[in-house]
Write a structure and sequence with these properties.
The complex is a heterodimer of chains A (380) and B (334).
Chain A (H helix, E strand, L loop, with lengths): L2 H7 L37 H26 L13 H9 L6 E3 L5 H6 L4 H4 L1 H4 L8 H4 L11 H14 L6 E6 L6 H13 L3 E7 L2 E2 L2 E2 L12 H5 L3 E5 L3 H16 L5 E6 L18 H8 L3 H11 L5 H22 L20 H15 L10
Parallel strand pairs in A: 1-2, 2-3, 3-7, 6-7
Antiparallel strand pairs in A: 4-5
Helix pairs in contact in A: 2-3, 2-13, 2-14, 3-11, 8-9
Chain B lengths: L6 E4 H15 L3 E5 L15 H5 L4 E3 L4 H13 L3 E5 L10 H8 L2 H4 L9 E6 L14 H5 L5 E3 L4 H13 L4 E6 L6 E4 L14 E4 L4 E5 L3 H12 L6 E5 L2 E3 L3 H11 L2 E8 L4 H13 L8 E5 L10 H4 L3 H9 L8
Parallel strand pairs in B: 2-3, 2-4, 4-5, 5-7, 6-7, 10-11, 10-13, 13-14
Antiparallel strand pairs in B: 1-8, 6-12, 9-11
Classes of the chains: A alpha/beta (380), B alpha/beta (334).
């Protein structure tokens, strides 16, 4: 008898047979992004929903164009455009009920506006003002989050708190492909799954984190596959197919509302513009790639379907265009007015009550302002 | 002195009682962290809370500090008052982005519309023979972050009162618990309503005329001991316990230094870039003409926290404090 065989004779009782804690098969995303437009499923789509999505997408595209123009006129400090991603932005807002909460990233002001927030308020921060503009409680939209993926655990905590209170609230949290590499993405998904919190995570995979393509961001089969590791379903959807995005998100919201826990949705889309107006996309990608994606434009895809089914006549197109122009004209007019900025207010909301130290510093600034001093070399 | 029956209690018991009373008084108070539920925390500070209030109100979270604090932010956004336990000082660092970018700024960046009433309890400091990453004095990081209150008790009564005040605060509070004082005992009556102190007020722990020792948290008992020992040298030292590093009580500190004319700041945190530099500067700016000597600092060395077998050389002790007091230019008086 060998030594190993002798050892085998003394092997202790083995632990209970291992089993997976969750069957991973139902959690796996489909092999292909889910599509409705251009498929047989499109025939079943609700005409009202199609018309509504179309009008919102047209308005959204105009909003993006207007905001970008405002950066060139010095009326916005910076604008991260969601041109080409309007289907995701609009659907994210439309699938939520009034009592639900939206957690946007900095690229998601269009979703914020689609949820009902005044565009001027939605753009406050990007204008160069010191606060996030809108009252988060009014439309149940969390303040725009600039540090990547940090808003995701907030969504989980809020949804968890609402459930503990017995309230019917779902939180939908938005993040980009780059954000999925952040630790907060991982921790948020893990907490959400452990707590079975009513949260939907929408990843807009627009191909780039500023300049870095997805291939350098992850080796996962897809971003939706990451869901399986947390024990939640992952769904893959064509992010430029507004009907498909709406359907997948609505399903996930319904699932969360029914107590089924979180879902991770990866929407495949494309950032048609540069990262922001301050970025130069020609340094890291070619025109042909952009042109390819422009042929898969969310508005064009939807219009093809609507026209094919006779749901979109010239009047409807003209009405959508006119509404979008009116929104842009109003935004332009109001953004061209200087905001009322009171430097003294910088001290007002750091704490519920300013500390004695802040009161001293506030008096210092007040005295400087009273003396008419402008900081030397300061930007106006 | 009152005649109410007071029993000796530990700081740990006072902290537990503070959370228990806060949870009983306000259903929006939720305790969350690693091992805080069934185990009652590695220091047993949350002992019994899960049993009394249920696991929905005293929750064992996954082991992820950014996730703990990030979800607590979301809960606070929905009107709850989370009390987060970070297991050790150095294990709180993964939560810094949430702390600096959201906890500290959300009230401000929403123009007051979204206050975050949450308390972050952090056991901190050395002196318990902890291995690496278990003994950091991290207060300077928090102090340097506008939007946070930074509070640290040194007595059993303050542990209760300041934690109650922190949980009741509508602002985020980093509540630093001097872990080597967890088992310190004192006569303490938890039913005394005056035991809830407002945040932001320092207290004179010992009156004296020769010089002021300005200190907080784990260094308060050391300074009290030093003040007793100083009597043999003919020095009558005053000891000011800051209790709150942010907001800072310039008034109490400067009133003391103006009386004594000399000051030493004592803390475990490293001296370079530590709280003592800020405090010495504030005192000098405000009390210059009352000072008989430069404000001195007795701090930990500027080292990664030393191992248990050597930490006694690092921590400010009575002798080092008395040496500093001896350097306060007394010769000018003789």
């Amino acid at each position: 008898m060998t030594v190993m065989e002798q050892r085998g004779a003394y092997r202790p009782t083995p632990p209970p047979a291992w089993q997976p804690r969750t069957d991973p098969a139902p959690l796996l995303p489909d092999a292909e992004p889910y599509r409705v437009l251009g498929t047989e499923a499109a025939a079943g789509a609700d005409p009202e929903l199609l018309r509504r999505l179309h009008a919102e997408l047209v308005k959204g595209r105009r909003y993006n164009a207007q905001a970008t123009a405002l950066t060139k006129q010095g009326r916005l400090a910076v604008y991260p455009s969601s041109t080409g991603q309007e289907a995701c932005e609009v659907a994210a807002a439309l699938v939520l009920e009034q009592q639900d909460w939206l957690f946007p990233s900095y690229r998601d002001t269009l979703a914020v506006v689609a949820r009902g927030v005044d565009p001027v308020e939605a753009l406050t921060l990007l204008r160069g003002d010191w606060h996030t503009g809108y009252d988060p409680h009014e439309h149940r939209v969390a303040p725009l989050s600039t540090p990547l993926a940090t808003q995701l655990p907030h969504a989980v905590g809020l949804a968890h708190a609402a459930r503990l209170k017995g309230d019917d609230v779902v939180a939908l949290a938005m993040v980009g492909d780059g954000g999925t590499s952040e630790g907060d993405f991982h921790e948020a998904l893990n907490f959400a799954a452990v707590w079975q919190a009513p949260v939907v995570f929408l990843v807009q995979n627009n191909g780039f984190a500023i300049s870095v393509p997805l291939a350098k961001q992850t080796a996962a089969p897809s971003l939706a596959h990451k869901a399986v590791g947390y024990g939640m379903p992952g769904r893959l959807v064509d992010g430029n197919d507004a009907v498909a995005v709406h359907e997948v998100l609505a399903d996930a919201v319904r699932h969360a509302r029914a107590g089924g826990g979180p879902t991770l949705v990866e929407a495949i889309t494309y950032r048609v513009e540069a990262h922001t107006n301050a970025d130069d996309a020609t340094r890291y990608r070619g025109d042909s790639e952009v042109e390819t994606w422009k042929r898969h434009d969310p508005i064009a895809l939807l219009e093809r379907e609507l026209t094919g089914r006779g749901l979109l006549d010239d009047d409807a197109v003209e009405t959508a265009r006119r509404d979008a122009e009116a929104m842009a004209a109003d935004l332009r007019a109001r953004m061209n007015q200087d905001p009322a900025l009171d430097p003294m207010e910088l001290f007002a909301h750091v704490y519920a009550e300013p500390t004695p130290q802040l009161l001293e510093q506030r008096e210092q600034l007040r005295a400087e302002l009273a003396a008419g001093d402008e900081p030397e070399g300061a930007q106006r | 002195m009152t005649t109410v029956a007071v029993k000796p209690a530990t700081m740990a018991q006072a902290l537990t009682r503070a959370m228990r009373d806060a949870m009983a008084a306000d259903p929006s108070v939720h305790v969350m962290g690693e091992d805080v539920g069934t185990l009652g925390g590695v220091f047993r500070i949350t002992d019994g809370l899960a049993k009394e209030f249920g696991e929905d109100r005293c929750t064992d979270t996954p082991l992820a500090e950014a996730g703990i604090l990030g979800t607590a932010v979301g809960m606070a956004m929905y009107g709850m008052r989370p009390v987060v336990e970070m297991q050790f000082d150095a294990f709180a660092y993964p939560a810094f982005e949430q702390l600096l970018s959201h906890v500290a700024k959300t009230r401000n960046r929403t123009r007051g519309k979204m206050p975050l009433p949450l308390t972050i309890r952090v056991p901190y400091g050395g002196g318990i023979g902890g291995v690496e990453h278990h003994s950091d004095s991290s207060e300077a990081y928090y102090m340097a972050t506008p939007g946070l209150h930074v509070v640290t008790p040194a007595t059993v009564a303050d542990a209760y009162g300041l934690l109650r005040a922190s949980i009741a605060s509508d602002d985020p509070v980093v509540f630093l618990e001097p872990k080597r004082l967890y088992w310190s005992k004192d006569s303490w009556n938890p039913d005394d309503p005056t035991s809830v102190e407002p945040i932001g007020r320092a207290v004179v722990r010992r009156s004296g005329r020769s010089a002021t020792l300005i200190t907080y948290g784990p260094s308060v008992p050391v300074c009290m001991e030093a003040a007793e020992a100083a009597r043999a040298e003919g020095w009558d030292l005053e000891v000011v316990d800051l209790r709150s590093l942010v907001p800072f009580d310039d008034e109490t500190v400067c009133a003391s230094v103006r009386r004594t004319g000399r000051a030493v700041v004592v803390h475990e945190s490293g001296g370079f870039g530590g709280p003592g530099g800020e405090i010495a500067a504030r005192v000098t700016e405000r009390c210059f003409h009352h000072l008989e000597a430069p404000v001195l600092r007795v701090a930990g060395f500027d080292l990664p926290y030393p191992p248990p077998m050597l930490e006694r050389h690092h921590l400010p002790g009575v002798d080092r404090i008395l040496d500093a007091v001896g350097r306060l230019q007394w010769e000018a008086e003789s």
